[in-house]
Design a protein that fits this description.
Elements lengths: L1 H24 L13 H10 L4 E8 L3 E7 L5 E7 L5 E9 L7 H8 L7 E9 L7 E7 L6 E6 L4 E4 L22 H10 L4 E8 L3 E7 L5 E7 L5 E9 L7 H8 L7 E9 L7 E7 L6 E6 L4 E4 L14
Antiparallel strand pairs: 1-2, 2-3, 3-4, 4-5, 5-6, 6-7, 7-8, 9-10, 10-11, 11-12, 12-13, 13-14, 14-15, 15-16
C-alpha cells in the first residue's frame, strides 16, 4: 500500500511540474529580471512598456539597468534605467534600414542632407527624457568615403559626424560635438589645451590613440594625440606647409645654418611632446639628383638629418 501511495504522489508531482512548465511557455509578457534589478525599476519599466515581449535584463558597467526586448516588426529595443535612483535615462530602438516604421518627416529631413544618396547601414532612434535631445541616427556608407552618421532630431534639424567609429552609445555618450565614442576626460583635456580649436574631428587610431584633427591659424593642419589607455596627451603635430614665418625665427635661422639650407622645402611639421626637449620641427627637403631628406630642428636650435627620408607616418611611438 505504501508503494502505491508513493507512486501516486510522484505522478501528481510530475503532473504539477508539467502544468507549471506549460504555463511558463505561454507567458511571453512575464518580466524575469536579474536578481539584482530592484522591483521599483521593473515596475517603472512595465508601466512604460506594458506590451514588451521577451524581456531580458542586465546590469551595464556604466551604472544602468538595461531591459532588452522585442518591438514591432523585429525592432530591437533597449531601455536604460539609472542604478543610482532607478529613473529612466534612455531608450534605443534599432530599426535596421526600415525607415517606414517611424514618422515620415524624419525620412524627408534625411533626404535633404548631403548623405541622401549614401547607402544606409542602420537606423536607430535614441529617446531621452528631454525630448529635444532625442534623435534618429542614420549610419551611412559610400565607397571611397569614411563612414558617417547623420543625426535627425524630432524637429527635423540634422547634423553629421564623420568619420563615424560606431561607438557603443549609452545615456552618457557625448554626441553633441562630434566626439562620438571619445571619453569625456579626453575631450575635456583637449578643450582645455586647445580652447580655440575649429572644425574638430575625432578618430581612433589603431596604434592606441584618440586623435583630434582640427584647423589652426593660416590653414595649419593640427592633430592632437591622446592615449586610449589613460587619456593623457601624447603628441601634437602641426603641419605648416612651407610657411616657416608661422613659428619662432630661431628655428628658421637654425635650419639655414644646415647643409640643406638651399634645398627645396616640401613641408614643415612641428611635433610637440609632453617632454619639451623631444619636440622638433621636421623639414622635408628635396634636391635634384639627391635622395629626399628630413632635417630635424629641436627647440634649443640643435639639428640632425635623416637621409634618405621615406615620409613616414609619425605617431607618438615612432622612433626617429
Amino acid at each position: 500500500m505504501k508503494f502505491h501511495k508513493f507512486t501516486l504522489l510522484l505522478s501528481c508531482i510530475a503532473l504539477l511540474s508539467f502544468s507549471a512548465c506549460d504555463d511558463d511557455d505561454n507567458t511571453e509578457n512575464t518580466v524575469k529580471p536579474a536578481s539584482n534589478v530592484p522591483e521599483a525599476v521593473v515596475n517603472t519599466f512595465t508601466k512604460q512598456y506594458p506590451d514588451a515581449k521577451n524581456v531580458k535584463w542586465e546590469t551595464d558597467k556604466t551604472g544602468y539597468y538595461v531591459a532588452e526586448f522585442d518591438g514591432l516588426y523585429g525592432t530591437e529595443i533597449e531601455a536604460w534605467y539609472k542604478t543610482s535612483d532607478g529613473s529612466w535615462a534612455m531608450t534605443s530602438s534599432d530599426y535596421g534600414v526600415d525607415d517606414f516604421l517611424f514618422p515620415a518627416p524624419i525620412s524627408v529631413a534625411f533626404n535633404k542632407t548631403a548623405y541622401a544618396t549614401w547607402n544606409i547601414k542602420d537606423i536607430t532612434y535614441y529617446e531621452y527624457p528631454d525630448a529635444n535631445k532625442s534623435f534618429y541616427l542614420y549610419e551611412v556608407t559610400k565607397s571611397g568615403q569614411p563612414d558617417a552618421a547623420v543625426m535627425i532630431y524630432n524637429d527635423g534639424t540634422s547634423r553629421d559626424i564623420s568619420p563615424w567609429t560606431d561607438p557603443d552609445i549609452t545615456p552618457d555618450t557625448n554626441l553633441t560635438s562630434g566626439t562620438a565614442g571619445i571619453p569625456d576626460t579626453v575631450t575635456n583635456a583637449f578643450t582645455q589645451q586647445y580652447p580655440d580649436a575649429q572644425n574638430v574631428k575625432w578618430e581612433t587610431d589603431k596604434t592606441g590613440y584618440y586623435v583630434a584633427e582640427f584647423d589652426g591659424l593660416y590653414g595649419t593642419e593640427i592633430e592632437a594625440w591622446y592615449k586610449i589607455s589613460d587619456g593623457s596627451w601624447a603628441m601634437t603635430s602641426s603641419d605648416y606647409g612651407v610657411d616657416d614665418f608661422l613659428f619662432p625665427a630661431p628655428i628658421s635661422v637654425a635650419f639655414n645654418k644646415t647643409a640643406y639650407a638651399t634645398w627645396h622645402i616640401e613641408d614643415i611639421t612641428y611635433y610637440e611632446y609632453p617632454e619639451n626637449s623631444k619636440s622638433f620641427y621636421l623639414y622635408e627637403v628635396t634636391k635634384n639628383g639627391q635622395p629626399d631628406t628630413a632635417v630635424l630642428i629641436y627647440n634649443d636650435g640643435t639639428s640632425r638629418d635623416i637621409s634618405p627620408w621615406t615620409a613616414t607616418d609619425i605617431t607618438p611611438d615612432t622612433t626617429l
